[in-house]
Amino acid sequence: MLASKSLVRWMYLPAAAPYLFLGGCSAVQGGVLPALAWWAWPLLLFIVCFILGIIAVPAGVGGGVLFVPIVGGFFPFHLDFVRGTGLLVALASALAASPALLRIGLAHLRLALPLALLVSVSSIAGAYLGLRLSEAVAQISLGLTVLGIVVLMWGSRKSETPGAAAPDALSAALRMAGVFHDVAGGKDVAWAAQRTALGFFVFLVIGLLAGMFGLGAGWANVPALNLMMGVPLKVAAGSSSLILSMTSSAAWVYINEGAVLPIIAVPSVIGMMLGALIGSRVLKVANAAAIRRLVIGMLLFAGLRALLKGLGY
């Protein structure tokens, strides 16, 4: 369940900061922490999120899917606060990267708009459901979900650029097709969305899980766009960030329930946005397969950590 409601009042009291990070309230896990000053934790959050922002955009997974299992597993914060911040982090990194991705043609607005609407609606239901899980159940469920993401991303590692195909009736009506210039390959790549109706249903499920665990939707956006709908990997990654920038509805549920603390959220969001600005430039020239392998390794480690933490190890 959500940590003590009294923490909502502490957001406005500077004196509460040492207690938040040194075990004086229920936002902190356990009673034994490293011997660090309270201000060291926001600084560490900023550094970690800056690095995650650089990695997340080229991988197309959004900041939340890396932030929640890594911070939830290795920082001394209650998972409810991590999940609430995770949605803000995913939104921030996407907002920072999306203008540049649109400018260089790696994000497609007509592809992203209908999918963003579906994710926004279902993520609200997921947020309400996730806040009613106990912490142990939430950690175990998060670990299993992240490990499932690893399997999904590993299975999609060879599908870098699907061949061009004619759009189906729904994608043709919505004009979900285009051409982008692949700088790394030195050629223009034509693409068109396939199996659009099935893709719409899958994105409803993605939004539900994203809101439940505070992951954002980027972790499944890219495999769904790339493998199911036939969108080239770089366009899928860029459009994934654009979708994330328009799907902040679940974050309001966590804010309303008192599951967002500024002392956790502010350094995380600032670090992620600065990292994402660099990541959007990296995407243009990055080797997509290498970035994908790096993210898979990080998620495997973080997913196992979340699972073991939920089991009490």
Mean pLDDT comes to: 75
Fraction in beta strands: under 5%
**Largest sheet, if any?**
2 strands, antiparallel
Structural class: mainly alpha
Tally the structural domains. Answer: 1
The main sheet orders its strands as: 1-2
Proportion of residues in helical segments: 55-70%
Tell me the number of helical segments per DSSP (H or I, 4 or more residues long): 14
Task: Report on this structure.
By secondary structure, this protein is mainly α. The protein contains 14 helices and two strands; from the N terminus they run ααααααααββαααααα. The protein has helices at about 5-10, 15-20, 40-60, 60-75, 80-105, 110-130, 135-155, 170-175, 195-215, 220-230, 235-245, 250-255, 260-285, 290-310, and strands at about 175-180, 185-190. Strands 1-2 form a two-stranded antiparallel ribbon. α3 (about 40-60) crosses α14 (about 290-310), α6 (about 110-130) crosses α9 and α6 packs across α11 (about 235-245). Residues about 1-35 have low confidence and may be disordered.
